[in-house]
Design brief:
Elements (H helix, E strand, L loop, with lengths): L4 E7 L5 E9 L2 E6 L2 E8 L2 H29 L1
Antiparallel strand pairs: 1-2, 2-3, 3-4
Length: 75
């Protein structure tokens, strides 16, 4: 069994920290964000997995911001 390793630590727009983890499993790279496990991917290469994590994280944060804005307007 292989261990996941920290690929990058990113700082978000509001000072939050996100830890990008990668683990090679057979011929694929599995990636996820430690603080947001719903942000994940499976890619053929380490570089592709890292890039996809960036994309998925950005999309997820945009969606959370949109949802928060909608909730604020409704209250």
């Amino acid at each position: 069994m292989t261990k996941a390793h920290v690929a990058q630590i990113l700082e978000g727009e509001y000072g939050e920290t996100f830890t990008l983890l990668l683990e090679q499993k057979d011929e694929a790279w599995v990636g996820w964000i430690e603080e947001l496990p719903e942000v994940n991917c499976i890619e053929a290469t380490k570089e592709d997995a890292l890039e996809m994590l960036h994309v998925n994280l950005e999309e997820t944060l945009e969606e959370y911001e949109k949802e928060a804005s909608e909730m604020y307007r409704e209250s």
